Sequence to fold (208 residues):
Amino acid sequence: MNAFEQGLTRHLDAGWLLYARNIRIGLIGAGGLGSNCAMHLARSGFSNLILVDPDRIEASNLNRQTFFLRQLGFPKVEALRDNILAVNPAAQIETHILSVEETNIMALFGSCQAVIEAVDQAGTKRMIAERLAPAGCLVVSASGMGGSGRTGAMRVHALGTNLVVVGDMATPCDENTPPLSPGVGMAAAMQADIVLQHFLNQHQASRT
Fold:
């Protein structure tokens, strides 16, 4: 057990760490939502992650994404993997520099118990939900997090047994309501919290 894991056991017991290691979580997108959510999940004890994103880090990403100036130009998934390993070197992280499509989604995420949807395209969001949720995978999506001053509007919306969406369901990220760190980070934290609570409940049930 490394120093991070030892520290985490002050808040979540060692049994949780063992349980969480066997939970495979996929993140589709490693931008504002995905990078922040991945760090929250890693800091909660999840250490078996699949990161998929085709993009490289740009200067315009740094206002809201969990990257640093020294990582400009790096593939997002590789930089995010390195940042997670800097917190927990025992994490097992699989990375893919590509886009998720109908033809590869099940090969990439069919073994996952949960998937974070963190992409911009509406069609891709729908495809992720339609393919993974019916297969028994918990899908946590996001919609409506642009601008600022909407803390009270951010909500959790359960749209089915395995599909949850966070956000205000209305506010896009555009010129009038740009993607800013507090709103995007809040949505990412909500996504991670849903996953954490879901599996903590399962862990507690397995002990009774």
In short: The mean pLDDT is 96. The radius of gyration is 16 Å. Helices lie at 3-8, 14-21, 32-43, 76-87, 105-109, 122-132, 181-206. The longest strand covers residues 155-160.
